[in-house]
């Protein structure tokens, strides 16, 4: 058992030289009844109800001192207790102990209440991720173009695209388990260095013009995709480590906006760089990995260790890959929304191919199709901008139900007309609603999931939505070949309407377990079960 010592830091009247006030062994410094022999991971509560953790400071009223133990002049009513709980692992200066871990706000990791824009670690993560996303997405646009130019085979280009998407299905669960059981900063650093190495090998092989370039590029794209998934899940868990609870809506909204902004910019940057020089997008990707690795090296990784707090009831260590899936299945709101996200992603992939086929049949200019497809990204950027404000005042369940009906309206507008302006507005709405609902559900998932399972649950949540992308593209081709553009559009609108009705019915009696979710009445009108 670790012994505690308490170091008074009162700035009151001078005390007798060489003497300290006696302290009863059954009482903590703030009269909390916490003795000096308790566990260093335990917490004590002062008279104001505020909690001070390991290395924390009790900013409460002075503890009563028996007259027989009083030393020096009595403290006035204005003097407040500023007693530092000193643990052997905490330096006297209040610096964080090396090697200690835990999420933001965890005992031993007191955080200052600052804006997320002044949160150094978060901004370094965010800027590095944006740079890496821009380079990676630009390279992904250029991969099929390069393969087609070198081999002249559309089938080969398709295999390269498939290899880049396959890790989103295969390695979500292992990546989530890794994020929960390994230091997340170390994981992200390994992934960035690994991505940099694969990009360098790819550029080298391409410049050497080897005959076995196709199998090599398929393998390297798959490996880079695996590094990308491991990085993304580790970073999602790291957001919780570096930001306070009240900063999470803004932090997740910034990441959502960054995803849409880099997606839009990467399409243009990748094509332009490829037009200038065939290997320039991949050299830019190489540079983005270097910049992201540099910013990550400046992040304090000591708060990004796996959560292992024996004083919490949710501290059971992960037993395997199934634990995240099991937890997700037993959380009704996340289970239902995950299935609905997957189903709607299939529809969106079908609509994208519908736009391409309709544009070709109507002989529309290529720039019209480009603007039409980009409108969802612009809508997502707008939706992510307002998501943090909406998520703080509206329940995620209500947001998602409204999103379903908004999507149904947009799908109906796409089917009702082939005019690109109307379809662009509808597609803009799809992107905006998707960003808003994604932030709301993601914030709820971060708040409701036990810290030691966050990576696994996030990985399990990505299997269906990510797996729906290639399935949607495959299904769309058969639908358009069998039904034609107009009938397919109305069929997709009907399916979206059915999903809205089904989702509303399923979520009507579902309660939310997260304590920070805004209060609301159930959708069925009953008042018996308030939402968390």
Show the helix and strand layout.
Layout: E1 5-7, E2 44-45, E3 51-52, E4 57-58, E5 83-86, H1 120-151, H2 154-165, H3 167-170, H4 172-181, H5 184-208, H6 213-242, H7 248-276, H8 280-297, H9 322-329, H10 332-361, H11 366-393, H12 396-416, H13 420-448, H14 454-483, H15 485-507
If you had to describe this structure to a student in words, what would you say it looks like?
The chain has 532 residues and is mostly helical. It has three domains: 1-91, no CATH class; 111-306, MFS general substrate transporter like domains (Growth Hormone, Chain: A, Up-down Bundle), CATH 1.20.1250.20; 313-532, Growth Hormone, Chain: A (Up-down Bundle), CATH 1.20.1250.20. It is 62% helix and 2% strand. The chain has helices at 120-151, 154-165, 167-170, 172-181, 184-208, 213-242, 248-276, 280-297, 322-329, 332-361, 366-393, 396-416, 420-448, 454-483, 485-507; strands at residues 5-7, 44-45, 51-52, 57-58, 83-86. The strands form two sheets. A three-stranded antiparallel β-sheet has the order 1-5-4, with no helix packed on it. Strands 2-3 form a two-stranded antiparallel ribbon. A hairpin with a 5-residue loop joins strand 2 and strand 3 (51-52). The two termini are 38 Å apart.
